[in-house]
Amino acid sequence: MNNAIIELQEVSKIYQNNPLAGVQSVSLSIPEGLVTVISGESGSGKSTLLKLISGLMSPDSGVVLYKNGPVMGPESRLIPGHDAMKTVAQDFNLNIYARVYDNIAGLLSNTNLKEKQQKTFEVMEFLKIDHLAQKRAVDLSGGEQQRVAIARAIITGPEVLLLDEPFSQVDSILKNELRADIKRMSRYLGITAILVSHDPLDGLSLADKMIVLKDGEVLEEGAPSDLYNAPGCLYTAQLLSNCNVLSSEDARELDIYTGKDTVAVYAEWVRLNRNDDSLTFTVKDCFFKGFYEEVLLERNGVKLRAINTGNFRYVKGQEVGVSIDRFVEF
Ligand code: ADP
Ligand code: MG
User: Fold this and answer.
1) Which of 83, 170, 205, 284 is most buried, most CB within 10 Å of its CB?
2) Substitution site in 18, 54, 87, 163 for ligand 1 pocket (most atoms within 8 Å of beta carbon)
3) By the 8 A CB rule, do 253 and 272 touch?
4) Which residue segments constitute the domains of the chain, with CATH numbers given?
5) Keyword GTP-binding: yes or no (predicted)?
């Protein structure tokens, strides 16, 4: 992993009027030039954490370091926020009655008008919004506004781009495109991107590093594939995979008990064998999901969710052999 550009050491921030909220004793590092995704449920402290990182809010205790120097809070600066960092807030913060071009160009100085124009078009092209230059922001779709907000953030050449829930306003097709653009931007411009999202799937496909936040605390961090395949806690497994959670008795019934209290079995780790009597389950329900079928199974009170990607369709009441390819224990 690349060197850390930002480091948080034991950072806490508790809201006066809401003592149970905020973030507690967060220590983490953000690798330079890569995409870090902070994932957690709504209210877990993601927006608070972004504000603390960029200096828009001061911690009660602990330190935030940018390139080994302290990030100053809003009390100590004329314009709040670290100069090298730009945030795209959840509400985009656009001048909605101004044209797209002016929204973006307005952040550059007028000393060299030709350069200003060139740079603005460069950024608009990069984000594929150059054809919208003359439109007013208010007349754009949510996804287009999102891109204008990102263009505004990167036009001044920040080293760190912070994005608060960047996908909340876009539908799933645009979401994939925007994910790819954020990755491209980070790679091409060398920007360090920090993105927070309540949807863990955003992190899986986009992050170089993923951080799981719960109730204001960092639970674990790592490469998305490591967190997915070898989660350190049940919360992460559930957040990333909607897995089967089995008690020790359930695990005994399935012959995978090794002494731990809880066993997580991802749906894709449940292997269905039509012509095999390994462990016989009954199909309780099937749901068509497009390219796969979700199959709910039961055996002596143990319920399992499995997926079937084959051409064969299961039917309710059918008996099916099951073997567990993998499981993780906690
Ligand atoms: P997230 O972005 O993950 O949804 P936030 O950082 O916005 O979470 O909020 C974390 C917790 O802090 C929530 O319980 C929220 O209600 C509370 N909170 C956020 N901002 C304030 C504030 N200005 N005053 C009091 N409580 C706040
Ligand atoms: Mg938030």
Assistant:
1) 170
2) 18
3) no
4) 4-233 (3.40.50.300), 242-329 (2.40.50.140)
5) no
